[in-house]
Amino acid sequence: MEFKYTSRSGDKMDEYKITVRSEKETIAVAQNIESEKFPNMVICLYGELGSGKTVFTKGFASAMEIEETITSPTFNIIKEYPSGELPLYHMDVYRLEESDESIGFNDYFNKGGISIIEWADIIKNKLPEERLDIKFKVIDEDTRVLVFMPHGEEYEEICSAVL
Are β-strands 15-20 and 78-81 bridged in parallel, bridged antiparallel, or unpaired? Predict the structure, then answer.
């Protein structure tokens, strides 16, 4: 894995980049982030199909000691995994209409668990101000660049501690 830190000036936040070369390395990054988890943590995942968003979620869930099989909740929108150290709310909003108000995302963000959202850009106006954004950029079949953008002091601290 390769790590790179970029500090931006003005009102832009810091950015952390990690190059991973396998699913195993993506899982290891997720497990490092999980080690700093806290209630009501929100992680937003961005990237094209097959870029590693669900692999990241699987790694995070395994570190939380969730034994259920983690799959992308594309047709369910939200899958709840209450069996871990904290509840995990895995959201895939790919098929969601922007105007759908019936989900109650804010309720999930404040239930004391961890919310991981795939395709978070679709619900950007419903996301909390404080969160961790992770963009997955496909370089080739095995290589991905993960760009971490923390929003808020707690998320800055996580990135500084584990990346």
Answer: unpaired
